[in-house]
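Tokens for chain A. Residues wanted.
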């Protein structure tokens, strides 16, 4: 029995503690989190080079198009189920003039 008491004096808590489990979960989370960051740092240049080859397949043409429309002339486009053709469009300008299939 003396040996058991000596062991208890050196290491008194031999049971399971919730704090130890919390530290284990924290370590696992940090391990997988750092692995995800490392994978993202490695995969980003690889995926960028693949998208570069996809951009080259357009012959160097950038698919993005931009433009601007002036606000000098406003109009309203109207379609109606009562018009003879479903694709008929009536254009009404801001001065009241109409064009198209009105």
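Reply:
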């Amino acid at each position: 029995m003396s040996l058991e008491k000596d062991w208890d004096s050196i290491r008194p808590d031999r049971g399971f503690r919730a704090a130890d489990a919390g530290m284990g979960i924290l370590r696992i989370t940090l391990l997988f989190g750092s692995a995800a960051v490392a994978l993202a740092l490695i995969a980003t240049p690889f995926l960028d080079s693949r998208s570069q080859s996809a951009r080259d397949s357009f012959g160097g043409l950038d698919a993005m198009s931009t433009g601007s429309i002036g606000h000098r002339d406003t109009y309203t486009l109207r379609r109606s189920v009562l018009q003879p053709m479903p694709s008929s469009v009536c254009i009404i300008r801001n001065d009241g003039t109409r064009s198209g299939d009105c």
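Residues 18-56 form the longest helix (39 residues). Residues 16-55 form one domain.
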